[in-house]
Amino acid sequence: MHGYDKYAFEPFAVTVDLAVFTLRAGALHVLLVERAQEPYAGRWALPGGFLLPTESAETAARRELAEETGLTDVSGLHLEQLRTYSEPDRDPRMRVVSVAFAALLPDPPEPRAGTDAAEARWTPYDTAGPLAFDHDRILADARTRIGAKLEYTCLATAFCPPEFTLGELQQVYETVWGTVLDRPNFRRKVLATPGFVEAVPGAARLTGGRGKPAALYRAGTATALHPPLLRPTPEGRPA
Amino acid sequence: MHGYDKYAFEPFAVTVDLAVFTLRAGALHVLLVERAQEPYAGRWALPGGFLLPTESAETAARRELAEETGLTDVSGLHLEQLRTYSEPDRDPRMRVVSVAFAALLPDPPEPRAGTDAAEARWTPYDTAGPLAFDHDRILADARTRIGAKLEYTCLATAFCPPEFTLGELQQVYETVWGTVLDRPNFRRKVLATPGFVEAVPGAARLTGGRGKPAALYRAGTATALHPPLLRPTPEGRPA
DNA sequence: TCAAAAGTGTTACGATTACACCCATGA
DNA sequence: TCATGGGTGTAATCGTAACACTTTTGA
C-alpha cells in the first residue's frame, strides 16, 4: 500500500455479484436475471451491480438483494462474502472487479424484475448454466461453500422459515448435499448441539398431510457446530 | 451486472494486501512494512500494492509476495484469498478496495525492503499492532482463518521446509493454536490420514541437539483432513 | 547415567452408525 | 387398518484423549 498518486493507479469498476439460494419443491434453486444488453444479451446471469460511491460491498450486496428479490426487509437474511473475481478478461469491455456474495432465503418469494434487468427467475441449480461472464464459476463456488458450511455451522436454519420441523431442517441438508440422512441420528445430533435449535413450546404442525404432527423449532443462537455434522460420503473433498 | 456505461460507475483503486506468516523461534511472525508516506507515515502496515492493468488480484498478490520477501521463487508458496475490504472510509483520501490474501512461508528469509517501502520486517504476531488503515482487522482475520484451516486441511505443511519431522509439524499446530498437543496422538492422527505426509525412506535428523533422531517426512498430495484435527479447547468458536 | 526428544502400546470414553421399534395422524 | 412421517432405544464400531512406557541420542 504505497505510491498513492490519484493518477498512478488504474481505474477499475467494482461490482457485487449475488448467488441467492433457496429451496423449492425439494430442489436447490438460484435467483437469475436475464441480461437485456450486450454482452451476453438474453443470457442468464447472477444478479448484481455497481457499488455506489458511499457503499461497502456488503451494503451494495444487501441493497441488490432487496431490489432483485422484491423483499422489503432483507436484514435478517444470511449474506456472506464469498471471494473476489478479478481476472482481467472477465468482462470483455473493461476492467471489472467483482465481489461475490452468497445469500440464503427461507421462503421463495416471486422475484421482482429490477428496473434494469429484463427478468428475474428462480431456476433449479442443476439447470442454471451456462451463465454470462464467469458466473458459472461463481455459482459453483458458492454452492460448494454453502455445502461445506452446512457441516460445521448452523447455516441450514437460514433456509428455513422462522418456525420449522426437524424434518424440514433435515431436508435442507439432504437437498444441498444430495444425500439421504438417518432421521434418528440427525435428530439426536441437532438436539445435542446447544443453541442449534430451540423448541417452540407446545407447538406442532402437520407436514406431509399425513403422519404424526411434528414439533416446531426456532433457530438458536449458536453459529458453529461442535462437533461438525459431516457428510456421509465425502465427495467434493480430496482426502 | 447491468448498465454498463463507462461513465456511470465510480472509479475505484483496487489493491491487494498480504498477511504473510512464518514461524520463527517458536512464535508466529508476520511480515510488515514501514510506511514512508502519509497517511500513517512511520506506521507499520501489511505489504501490498495496486493491481497492474493486466493482473488479477492473485497475480498481483504473488508479485508483491516476491517483491517484499525478496524470494526469487514464490510459486510453491501457499497463497490464498481471504476476503475483500471495501468500507468507503478505509483510506482517508480515496476509494480503495483491497483484496486481502494470506501467505505462508516455511523458512523465514530476511525480507528485502521494496523500492517504495521504507523497511520490511518480520514481527511477532502478538506485538504487531496497531497497524495503518484497517490492517489490524485484516491481520486478525487472516490469523483466524489460518488457525481454522489447520483443523480440516493439510495447510500446516506450508509452514514446514521440504523435509520435516513430525515434531516440527506438531509445533506448527501448537504455535498457531497456542495449545499443547499430545505427541503420540498427534503422530497417529497424522500418519493415519492418507496423503497428509509421506515418509522419506531412511532419512533421520537430530532436532533439538539431544534426543533420538526423528524420521523425516514430506508433504503429501492430500489437501483436506478427514476427519479433522480439532483444537483441544474451542476458543474462537461459539458453540 | 541422566535429560531430552522420538516413538509404541493400551485403556476409557465419546460420537457416530445402523438398525429395530413405537406413536400419531389422514385416507 | 394401512400408509406416512415423527420420535425413541440400543448395540457395534470408530475416533480421540489420557497416560504409561520404551528407544536413541548428546552431555
UniProtKB/TrEMBL annotation, chains A, B:
<dbReference type="InterPro" id="IPR020084">
    <property type="entry name" value="NUDIX_hydrolase_CS"/>
</dbReference>
<dbReference type="InterPro" id="IPR000086">
    <property type="entry name" value="NUDIX_hydrolase_dom"/>
</dbReference>
<dbReference type="Pfam" id="PF21906">
    <property type="entry name" value="WHD_NrtR"/>
</dbReference>
<comment type="similarity">
    <text>Belongs to the Nudix hydrolase family.</text>
</comment>
<dbReference type="InterPro" id="IPR054105">
    <property type="entry name" value="WHD_NrtR"/>
</dbReference>
<keyword id="KW-0378">Hydrolase</keyword>
<dbReference type="InterPro" id="IPR036388">
    <property type="entry name" value="WH-like_DNA-bd_sf"/>
</dbReference>
<dbReference type="InterPro" id="IPR015797">
    <property type="entry name" value="NUDIX_hydrolase-like_dom_sf"/>
</dbReference>
<feature type="domain" description="Nudix hydrolase">
    <location>
        <begin position="11"/>
        <end position="145"/>
    </location>
</feature>
<dbReference type="InterPro" id="IPR020476">
    <property type="entry name" value="Nudix_hydrolase"/>
</dbReference>
<dbReference type="InterPro" id="IPR036390">
    <property type="entry name" value="WH_DNA-bd_sf"/>
</dbReference>
<dbReference type="Pfam" id="PF00293">
    <property type="entry name" value="NUDIX"/>
</dbReference>
<protein>
    <submittedName>
        <fullName>NUDIX domain-containing protein</fullName>
    </submittedName>
</protein>
